[in-house]
Design the sequence.
């Protein structure tokens, strides 16, 4: 079986992850909260994000106003030695949601008059 060549950045990331000692679930959640609190996009939004650890899976839930912030939240925790399960719901100011149900009504948005 052929193994793809790793770039230097991938090797460095793999090395950094392997240097992190095994942490308890409580320590992982605390470290994740510290990383989020230190991130410029989230230190005022941390109350809208919930972090739980189930085994080697870190679950992110809550609501954020954009897909960009959802992705940034996942990237902020990418150095942790766990799988990130990003279930954050994206809810716009219009009440539209990324989940299977809308945060507001289920009716279609009205068309804007010209």
Sequence:
């Amino acid at each position: 079986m052929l193994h793809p060549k790793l770039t230097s950045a991938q090797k460095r990331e793999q090395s950094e992850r392997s240097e992190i000692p095994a942490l308890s679930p409580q320590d992982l959640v605390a470290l994740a909260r510290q990383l989020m609190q230190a991130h410029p996009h989230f230190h005022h939004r941390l109350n809208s994000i919930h972090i739980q650890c189930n085994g080697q899976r870190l679950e992110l839930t809550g609501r954020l106003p954009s897909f960009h912030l959802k992705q940034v939240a996942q990237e902020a925790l990418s150095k942790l030695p766990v799988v990130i399960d990003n279930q954050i719901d994206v809810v716009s100011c219009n009440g539209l949601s990324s989940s299977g149900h809308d945060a507001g009504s289920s009716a279609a948005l009205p068309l804007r008059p010209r």
